[in-house]
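Subgroup meeting minutes
Present: P.N., E.W., G.H.
Scribe: E.W.

1. P.N. recapped why we're keeping a running log of single-chain structure predictions: easier to compare across weeks, and new members can see raw inputs and outputs side by side.
2. G.H. added today's entry (414 aa).
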Amino acid sequence: MDAKVLIESFAEFARSKNVDRPTMIRILEDVFRAMIRKKFENDENFDVTINADQGDLEIFRIREIVDDDSEDIWDFDKISFAEARKIEPDFEIGEEVYEKIELEAFGRRAVQMARQTLIQRIKDLEKDILYNKYEELVGEIVSAEVYQILGREILLMDNDGNELILPKAEQISKDRFRKGDSVKAIVHRVDMSNGNPKIILSRTSPIFLERLFENEVPEVYDGLITIIKIVREPGERAKVAVESYDDRIDPVGACVGMKGSRIHAVVRELQNENIDVINFTENLDLYVTRALSPAKVSSITANEETKRISVFLKPDQVSLAIGKGGYNIKLASRLIGYEIDVFRELNELEEEDVDLKEFVDEIDSWIIDELKKTGLDTAKSVLSLTKEDLTRRTELEEETVDEIFRILGQEFDQ
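Output recorded in log:
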């Protein structure tokens, strides 16, 4: 393979990978200089000129002519007078010899290896470009097409044919995709696995919801409305605390839109995830009240040291505060950064009830704490539920729930 064929084939391959001309030339020179060092041990006295467009390559070895008896005769950039005269009879001592080195002088095997090295260098460069591209896109929304559905992940293809990965853990539980579907997600992170970029997407990240709001709500995109915090149970429920520094703008109304037009677009993308948009405030009591909406809170007691808040509600408001699957109270706690304990206000008919703390000798304190977290603070409030409801609310083992019912039931049987 001569230099012209080698360079032209490499240039064509590089252009197909969208490699710019200066980078292409730099790679070619690096590879040829590596060949020179392997054969001549040093490339400092070599001039390499490449014209990738024409496929031209010129390699010149430059050496200074010294006397045959000179001590410098063995230096890499020196040549003896006698050796120089073989190249050109009229050379004189002190002149420089420019000796052209043909590619064939390196041997067929070295040229083949250079070709493989060039291709590998482009592939490595392509990986670096891909890594850097998506590293800059971390936290941004991308759209890609599903091309393969596996058990633990979905493989997608971007517009440039690059593979993206949407793991099962980063999918909304209600997501159902088919081959050819277009999927929106954020770039969650970019890993390197065995030298190959691994681009991980996410649809469960709070940042994905934030970016969707930016797309649908111009005031958020323009910075007129600030998203203070987002907490999610992907596919089920989310709470978004927003704030506006312009008194003329209602941040909640702007995010929801006329008749819910803006929020509906976000909800549809998130598989009907229920989204509560809350007006942020520094007033902790008011913030808690808003976070627990739609429940109506009667009173609140906060403990700054333990980061716990006791919330008292009328009996018919407790289930609203807890929410389906306990999501409302869990998300409210995460949003405000306090652990919320829900308590029912007892009416006169309930005075004969017994507080759960009276059973601390028979029921472990951590179990009582779990029950109180879901608004169950008396024996009758627990017994009013079915075993299935209590198991679902608290995530306690069935055997533990049976034992709770047995202990509490004995109190009233007596």
